[in-house]
């Protein structure tokens, strides 16, 4: 089977790494890819916002399956265009991808489907948003940009003043561009957060074990929100609901609701769930594999993933399973100095080969480039170091040992990923 993976980050490197192990694979390509992906696949410098060029590349490669990694091409309708050209695509259509690209739409469809979610309201004007904050909500208050903003369009305001400032920054100051032209003001929930990812074929689903992302930039959940500074999998405590309950209460209802709207969801459905004293509450949905959750989950998959992705793409998951290895995986994201604010690029990176040589360690490229034979930084989140082991403690030790081998000017990473889960 000839496969094209769209994307250039750590998630796509992890997907290519796993697909490259498949005996069903006859050719692997990526667009645009990155230096890590280039060791596994033929990379093509195609702009993923140019949908026509993506379709042309798929035709050139005679692809049997296209796997879409990031959210932006999904929102632009790349799946619709590829399907119209006759390709099997792992990823939702533009309409189905609205479950991520519009938080307001996601809230509306969750309410119709009876899926528990925090109380919220959407606003496009400042005055009613301020009145809502001042007269109704308890604190802290969650303020979200409605649209896509690289996983960072969320502000946790400690009080009403901070909440109003966040709303003003989005609606008046344009802090998040068009993504923030509508804001969602949402109640804050106390609980334990989980990431649940399911392969879906429109009707059926295969659910991975829960993962746990670490969003804040600094140790002990301090600092600004980021795209994710590390993850653990499986992330399960004794009081957690089992996967069957998550499938029954969350995944199956949203798939039915989307299908009823003529937007059958085929691809990776990501539910960001808060486990509260009142039960699970869905904070939001994503329409693709999480990042860095993918880098923590895929190393635990023992079975051939390619047939399951293809089955999901063509609507025939029945009879498929995803077999998992025992043990755990911990990922640590190595970031550029200053991230998630201003940071430099083009800085030489050292020690990746030493890190990858540690048993149980894998290094996924997230924001790198190759210049004159030298690997350099090319993003905020640069490398995702994954460690596997028979226990979370062992996996964590491996990940941090590997992370310690890598260096560049200003590198920083959290030292507490998975802490307290042993």
Describe this structure in words.
There is one protein chain. By secondary structure, the chain is of the alpha+beta class. The protein folds into four domains: 2-91, Rossmann fold, CATH 3.40.50.20; 120-187, Dna Ligase, domain 1 (2-Layer Sandwich); 190-314, D-amino Acid Aminotransferase, Chain A, domain 1 (2-Layer Sandwich), CATH 3.30.470.20; 329-403, Phosphoribosylglycinamide synthetase, C-terminal domain (Glycinamide Ribonucleotide Synthetase, Chain A, domain 4, Alpha-Beta Complex), CATH 3.90.600.10. It has helices at 10-19, 51-61, 71-75, 78-84, 98-101, 103-113, 126-135, 160-171, 243-260, 293-297, 305-314, 352-356, 392-403; strands spanning 2-7, 27-32, 42-43, 65-68, 89-90, 120-123, 141-145, 154-157, 183-187, 192-201, 205-207, 212-213, 216-218, 222-225, 230-233, 266-276, 279-286, 328-335, 361-365, 368-371, 374-377, 381-389. Strands 3-2-1-4-5 form a five-stranded parallel sheet, with helices on both faces. It has a five-stranded antiparallel sheet with strand order 12-15-18-22-19. It has a four-stranded antiparallel sheet with strand order 6-9-7-8, sandwiched between helices. Strand 1, helix 1 (10-19) and strand 2 form a beta-alpha-beta unit. Helix 6 packs across helix 9 and helix 7 runs antiparallel to helix 8.
Provide a concise account of the structure shown.
The chain has 422 residues and is of the alpha+beta class. It has helices at 10-19, 51-61, 71-75, 78-84, 98-101, 103-113, 126-135, 160-171, 243-260, 293-297, 305-314, 352-356, 392-403, and strands at residues 2-7, 27-32, 42-43, 65-68, 89-90, 120-123, 141-145, 154-157, 183-187, 192-201, 205-207, 212-213, 216-218, 222-225, 230-233, 266-276, 279-286, 328-335, 361-365, 368-371, 374-377, 381-389.
